[in-house]
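explain this.
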Amino acid sequence: DKNGIWIALKCLKKYDTLKLAFFVSEEVGCVGSGKAVMDFFNDCRFVIQPDRRGYQDIINEIGWTSLCSPGFLKAAGYKKFGYKETHGMMTDVQELKERGLQVSCINLSCGYYEPHTDHEFTIKKDLMNCLSLVEHIIENCTDTYPHQAEIPGRRRGIYDEFDEAMDEIFALLDQGELWSTEDLYYMYHSVFPELDMEDYRRIYTEYYNLNTIE
């Protein structure tokens, strides 16, 4: 969170045309973004949230909610900064999308690790690289990048089940034992019957993406 605020304020100081939104209580259900006045975003070309741990993730989908257009991703030029597309976890840009945000948005890794622990730390070069990418997007993505979220065949209640399953499985994997995706599916399928094998693969991959520093 502090890293994202720092990046936002650095950009506010540098650029004449920029909007910032700071939302409260993201960790307990996106409370602030859930009450945002959506007209605030009517004149935005895109929305960037620097609020992902690690150094290389550009989040283009969360759960079953798509966040941005292929055209925006191409224009962003993120590969030059060592980033890669991946899926993410519940956060404010997802909430904004589900509330009707009509432009492309992303969440970016911004150089912090082990969040919400007494051991949280920042790698400065990763933070600076994220700032460079954000500045690159602001300076080079000069079009408006419209995008309407695609949520194919899923009800909001299933998002809640996915998030609950993620919490349970992350806690299990934190214990250090080795489990396969298939193990997790057979252990939890009766508890979370709406989720399929692909959902468990996403959760499994997400856990190891977040807990590996290359």
Q: What stands out?
A: The radius of gyration is 17 Å. The first strand starts at residue 47 and ends at 52.
